[in-house]
Automatic annotation (TrEMBL):
UniProt source species: Candidatus Protofrankia datiscae
InterPro entries: DUF4307
Protein name (record): DUF4307 domain-containing protein
Keywords in alphabetical order: Membrane, Transmembrane, Transmembrane helix
Pfam short name (any one): DUF4307
Bilayer-spanning residue ranges: 20-41
């Protein structure tokens, strides 16, 4: 029995009987870690992604259109801010709620208008978080 196992594990291109079992063991460990990671990601469907679609800036306000990707029934709360050239925040809104999608889609497009204290250079989504899982 041991002779047969020894002959199976004696793989010359993997370094012979002393090295081959370790390569095979590490391969199994990597495959198991990938399977566990994939299962964990699939079991946490409340992922949230967001990205800027368009913005428009005037001297007194900034308008931002952005996409939020989430579960169709989830509710997200987002914060949008406008910054001046010196990186100072000149406008911020924290009350932006992206509710459940009525059409069952994962991506919801939202437009926000901020009043700014002076002209902004950039307007961006500062943060989005799932407020209620769906």
């Amino acid at each position: 029995m041991f002779a047969m196992v020894r002959r199976l594990l004696d793989i010359p291109w993997l370094g012979g009987i002393r090295v081959a079992p370790w390569f095979l063991l590490m391969g199994l460990v990597i495959i198991a870690a990938a399977a566990i990671g994939a299962a964990w990601i699939q079991s946490h469907p409340e992922r949230l992604n967001y990205g800027t679609r368009a913005y428009r800036i005037t001297p007194a306000q900034a308008e931002l259109t952005f996409d939020v990707e989430k579960s169709p029934n989830a509710v997200a709360e987002c914060t949008v801010r406008a910054r001046a050239r010196d990186n100072e925040a000149v406008g911020r809104r924290t009350d932006i709620v992206v509710g459940p999608a009525l059409d069952g889609r994962r991506v919801t497009t939202t437009t926000v208008v901020l009043t700014t204290s002076r002209e902004a250079n950039v307007v961006e989504v500062e943060d989005c978080q799932i407020a209620r899982a769906g």
